[in-house]
Amino acid sequence: MRGDFCIGADLGQSNGYTALAIVEKLHSGNPQKLTALHLRHLERYPLGTPYPEIADAVAALVQSEHLVSYTTDEMLNRMPLYPELVVDQTGVGPPVTRLLRERGLTFRSVVVTASDDGGPGRGAYRVPKRDLVSALEVSLQTGMLQVAEGLRLWGLLREEMLNFRRKVDLRMTHDTFEHWRESESDDLVLAVCLACWGAARPRQQLFTFNYMPR
Asked: What is the domain count for the chain?
């Protein structure tokens, strides 16, 4: 059984948290058939952390020796297999994700929508929030997603999941998702949703330049 990784990044606006979640994809034989997902790491940056600093940290994480594995191409050349990165740009827009590209990163950029109008858009995937949440729900209910013992922010993530609810908006004929109270945060939940959503899709071959933070 061999694993590789998918990182979900919820980029918070200036008054919100930025959160990361790392899941390990485990499969046996067929790389397109998952056998399990392991939630290995959760991270939340302090409020007010500058976006260039966050971009530096994400670039360093993607190139971490703990997350990079190696494969061989058709010519038997040894090639690095970097973790896949899925980034929510809904609130911050392209200018922030551009900082990641300037650091040599390739990633799936996601714009979360409230409707069923999904699919690739201009430079980003339009993904209904229902699909993101369902990716996490299904993984948990089927036992596909397992949580690493001693995960530091697991208690906080569990609280966020308990505070999340689903309702059906009969006027719009689609599901919407909201908090029990407006003051509660959902950054960790969304980061894990992004990671699970990305892990369930055929991965892109991702490469990154050698980048040294200034």
From this structure: 1
